[in-house]
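User: Sequence in, structure out. Go.
Assistant: Echoing your sequence, followed by the structure tokens.
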Amino acid sequence: MFQLGKTIVSEDLIEKEFVCNLSACKGACCIDGDAGAPLDEEETKILEKIYPTVKPFLRKEGIDAIEKQGTWIKGDFGELETPLINDADCAYVIFDEKNTALCAIEEAYNQGLVDWKKPVSCHLYPVRIKDYSEFSAVNYDKWEICDDACSLGKELQVPVYKFVKQALVRKFGQNWYDELEKLAENHKKSSDS
């Protein structure tokens, strides 16, 4: 573990390799699991605001789930998250012609209709953030549905932190990321010697 400002960063972000392989997993992280995407308070307000713009991109099942449950929900332990369709797919999931799960919010973003890409927890995946009172823990979440992403990352030699660079900068800022890169370089040098 490394301390970086008010974050504790797992060495796995530096040591493990990862590149999403959507052609292999078909976006399984958006349709498997037992909870929606984690959200923060500000993101719940954004979802409420952009829902009318995102709605035309959604599947009927997603619209039904959102209109029944809301644009966001509180999970079993009070955590904020996206609603699910029948306790499976994220309500914001849509599918392309190859049956790959995509995000309706990101599609609206890509078309310039909203200025918010998607929940930062989705953008960060496979990195998960856990906030505590004094610090945030930044961890790599290993899940077997991402085995193909681990293989591709190893083949391309892309560490987790580089794969999620844009999302880490979005969450913590460029200066934080620059410090993480320095830590990674120093860690690699000490591991190589």
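User: And one key feature?
Assistant: The chain has a mean pLDDT of 90.
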